[in-house]
Specification:
This protein is an alpha/beta fold and 298 residues long. The chain contains 10 helices and 6 strands. It is globular, with a radius of gyration of 20 Å.
């Protein structure tokens, strides 16, 4: 099979891109009981994402709540609350008429909720919270807080919140299988074919076990393309972190971010057939550096 290396969709987003699945997912992780027939759901596209290099984030309103949900691999970033703060301010700007905030009458806005579904391989608590206030230099009389719920969705954790959603639990099991087979075959299969092979056998096993059966049967080739891109980006991130660490703490971190990390990310995106415009856009979002700095490595 020919891999489409320019595939930029996400398996997670595809699975939860309809109102029924979003309600089931939200009910599971928030222990609520919303019904499809009497719940107002509006899916909002995240055009300017601060969180990930992939388009696997969800933003939606559910009645009077505005929910920003991130499916996050690799290690948990403790700056997530700050990123959510910057994002939610922009999101409110989009949904409000700016003139309204200058009126004396109170402007009603949907209550924000922030959720990270952790799917990385490092050990992490089943359920935890991240607080914006932890970032403040002065922690006395804090006037601004933002709380992020972090839920570990790794299949091996057997998190009861995950198991309440059939689709989320099935997704978790599928990712578990792919990783399991990567470890099993990494020394016996050519590296260039390893990931594709492991995704294929995970798809077959899930179909045989009636796990995401119809979705995988209808979208098998797309699933391979989506995970191929996702897993390669995750591998690259781990390599960048390792290189930075090996160079020696703060100095190594700076080198990793400013040189090796930029070079590595640009090379990876080129290998995935990203255009120079998309490379600049992706690296700029991910690393927070200028366009001029990125162009040096193109």
């Amino acid at each position: 099979m020919n891999i489409n290396k320019n595939y930029k969709d996400s398996l997670f987003t595809r699975l939860f891109s309809n109102e029924k699945e979003i309600i089931n997912l939200y009910n599971a992780i928030k222990n609520t009981n919303y019904k499809l027939e009497d719940t107002n759901i509006n899916i909002i596209t995240l055009d300017d994402v601060l969180f990930m290099d992939r388009n696997n984030d969800l933003c939606f309103t559910i009645n009077d709540k505005l929910v920003v949900l991130i499916e996050h691999q690799s290690s948990i970033n403790k700056n997530m609350p700050l990123r959510f703060l910057l994002y939610i301010a922009r999101e409110y700007e989009k949904i409000l008429d700016n003139k309204n905030i200058y009126k004396t009458k109170l402007v009603n806005i949907p209550k924000p909720e922030f959720i990270v579904l952790y799917n990385g391989e490092s050990k992490y608590e089943k359920v935890s919270k991240l607080y914006l206030s932890d970032a403040f230099c002065d922690k006395i009389n804090i006037n601004l807080e933002l709380i992020v719920d972090v839920i570990n969705i790794n299949y091996e954790e057997h998190n009861n919140l995950v198991e309440k959603s059939t689709t989320l639990n099935d997704y978790s099991y599928f990712i578990y299988l792919v990783r399991k087979y990567i470890k099993e075959y990494k020394n016996s299969i050519d590296k260039s074919y390893l990931l594709e092979h492991c995704i294929k056998i995970a798809i077959k096993e899930c179909i045989d076990k009636n796990i995401l059966k119809e979705f995988l049967k209808q979208n098998g080739s797309e699933v391979i393309n989506m995970l191929y891109t996702e897993f390669n980006l995750e591998d690259a991130k781990l390599i960048w972190k390792q290189e930075a660490f090996e160079d020696g703490f703060e100095d190594g971190l700076q080198k990793g971010l400013q040189k090796g990390k930029i070079e590595g990310m640009v090379k990876l995106l080129k290998d995935l057939n990203y255009s120079n415009v998309d490379i600049i856009k992706t690296v700029k979002k991910s690393l927070g550096i200028t366009e001029e700095e990125i162009k040096r490595y193109l």
